[in-house]
Amino acid sequence: MMKLRIIAAALLTVALPLAWAATDEPIQPIPAAKVANPALVELGKKLFFDPRLSKSGFISCNSCHNLSMGGTDNLKTSIGHNWNEGPINAPTVLNSSMNLAQFWDGRAKDLQAQAGGPIANPGEMASNHALAVEVLQSIPGYVAQFKKAFGSDKVTIEEVTKAIAAFEETLVTPNSRFDKYLKGDKKALSANELGGYKLFKDSGCVACHNGPAVGGNSFQKMGVVEPYKASSPAEGRVAVTGKDADRFNFKVPTLRNVEMTYPYFHDGAAKTLTDAVDTMGRLQLGKKFSDEENAKIVAFLKTLTGDQPDFKLPILPPSNDKTPRPEPFAKK
């Protein structure tokens, strides 16, 4: 018995530093997604990829939040109906369930509230909720899947957005090299990458970029030390609250998979991570990083890329004779 106690104590002594290494850090590992309702998630996946939710029959959720490209479109601002130039950079959908709110200004409280916005936005998918529901209700394959997920033959926009949100909640990216480091694998990062993480912490980046998503959990002013000259008319949180103090306050973006989600900032003005680190250092922290320091921080940021969503591409149920047809060249 005494020998067992000694072994147990020795194991505890070894385990404690690894546990504390994770809990003491300002960033935590991302847990894998747990699917509570597979039928709902599968329906949401199909809706996410279905361009028939748009007036043109060409734009889907995946158009701007491409799951092959880090959950975004890698454009400065997205392209909407009729080649409309979007007013703001499309944030990644990956790990978006960890955000305190959705959109850069936080006007949607959660993923379900966000999902309905682009469908009815004339500059994005340019449809409306009634038409989107009419399209889905006319497709027998969808009616059967809505009944399986919700127990009813009647399709509603609330069910549409709930299904899309359920799918998006599964789009998490665990098992990055940095997560492995946090869990105790001290060989997961190189000395250069660890140096970048130390700079990231010591310089104050973690004041805003913290938690499992390395951001997404607060609104902060863009341009603290120096004003930011934006190329976008968006003014941030003030559009929601009406308070002048919230002008140019934006949701802090997640830095997970950040090497894949270029260009950066709400206006997409920073083309590279090097540009973004330099701008954030000067405008937010009052610090001019040397080229070497910048490179180290960029090296660390690239360790935040995790396992990308991996699933079979959904086959969408076909339209029938009663399904409203798309209008890809409609001006309004």
Q: Can you give keywords for this protein?
A:
two-stranded antiparallel sheet; disordered N terminus; Cytochrome Bc1 Complex, Chain D, domain 2; mainly alpha; 12 helices; 332 residues
Walk me through this protein's architecture.
The chain has 332 residues and is mainly alpha-helical. It has 2 domains: 9-30 and 176-304, Orthogonal Bundle (Cytochrome Bc1 Complex, Chain D, domain 2); 38-169, Cytochrome c-like domain (Cytochrome Bc1 Complex, Chain D, domain 2, Orthogonal Bundle), CATH 1.10.760. The chain is built from 12 helices and 4 strands, in the order αααββααααααβαβαα. The strands form 2 sheets. A two-stranded antiparallel ribbon has the order 1-2. Helix 2 crosses helix 7, helix 9 crosses helix 12 and helix 11 (273-285) packs across helix 12 (291-301). The termini are far apart.
Reading side by side through the largest sheet, how are the strands ordered? 1-2
Largest sheet: 2 strands, antiparallel
The total tally of domains equals 2
CATH class category label of the largest domain: Mainly Alpha
CATH superfamily of the largest domain: Cytochrome c-like domain
Query: Any idea what the shape is?
Result: globular
Instruction: List the uncertain runs.
Output: 1-22
